[in-house]
User: What shape does this take?
Amino acid sequence: MPAVTVLPADGIRVTDYHTAGEPFRIVTEGRPPAPGDTVAERYATAVGAGGSGTAPRPGPLDALRRFLVQEPRGHAGMYGGFLVPPDDDGAHLGVLFWHKDGFSTACGHGSIALAAWAVDSGTVLAGPGDRDVPVRIDVPSGRITATVHRTAGRTTGVTFRNVPARVTARRVPVATSLGIVEVDLAHAGACYASVRARDLGLAVEKAALPALTRAGREIRAALAGHPATWNPDGPLLSGVYGTILHEDLPDTPEGPRQRNVTVFADGQIDRSPCGSGTSTRIALLADEGRLDGGLTLTHESVTGTVFTGRALPGGDPAHGIVTEVTGTAHRTGEARFTLDPDDALGAGFLL
Assistant: This one.
């Protein structure tokens, strides 16, 4: 059983949100030190020398991740983040994202939840009335700007402007147990592989989740080391993070509408439409000319929740376009987690 870091006397304090159904646990007090001058350096510390995002080396930050994400305090679908200092005074806060398998370089649903928390908690002052409040967040892949929408003093939604999204490969043949399919690759803080579910003989629905998850894992494994998954900023930002299995729905008056299930890390399913994944879908649709004239993507999850997104004018899909994704986040509770020294399962486990 992995050892858990020594906890502060007052335990670990967290605030939980969900964004379009996907959980996000914000560690507000009790995190061990995260050495580094930037969030990217702190991410490298969390992953550890010789580690990767989905196979981090043992250390205090990873031990606390396991403690919070695994049962009995979490579950295999849990997601969260450690608050860390931003890179400089240009941002309000920084964050290290984590999930059941390790750490991630980007997380759109987490950014939406974190921006909502920052305003709801008073960390970023909003003031009364109807207004939009900017929240700048440093993440391992760069700086994002979120806009928290407020009506009558309450948060009603969040729009985040992601790091540039770029298409790196089209129609890459990949062999799966369901046949050979063509996959598109794009980066938006993390690399995602996109494939039409129907090309696998599948539909994006809850009943098909076991098959969709298996296909997503197979595609991710098959693309390991593919040159289009490489990020010029280094290996910690490279490699396929998630597979997006999508299907077209009837267009809305505002633009295309799609449903997806995103399988990320080692088979974790995103309950939301996936924020950074939505950015890559926007880049790919823009490349196809389907978002010309300022059209908006309506992006549904397998649970039926919705993000909307658009490409800002300027840029191009090959070298990077700026995307904006809008969704909602809601607080679900607060907790103080402790560890009983006599608890044999206290450090956490997964089934």
